[in-house]
Amino acid sequence: MRPVRRVAGGLLVVVLALWLALVEVFWLPLRVFGVLLPVSVVAAVAGNLLLVGLAARLTGSRLAAVLPALVWLVVAVGGSLQRPEGDLLVTGSGALGLVSLAFLLAGVVAAAFAVGRVLAAPRDGVRPVRTGSGSGGAR
Fold it and tell me: pTM here?
């Protein structure tokens, strides 16, 4: 794969991760007819699982595959920090607090799982060679 395509693919995935994380944070208080919808939780899990794998596929780099998860984490944690003006995006009271906690927990777990899956995959599709007879006993 050409280096320009790898860099462009990595940049595209990071920008997409940034945009998706911002949208997820703003979707946290989403209500339809007064009912709180946890759309952000589902989007965080799906986005982190898909974008980490996509980054690994487009760039061919394990390091670049971690970037979408880091971008998501920075945006999600940044939304939970109070600004000097008192603005707070990820709140912690009532039902919205539960959805916010589920958003942070599920998003981090999905990102960690996706990164672990990419890092544990064999490099260049080469599987380790099995040695021994496979019976489990040493002779």
Answer: 0.80
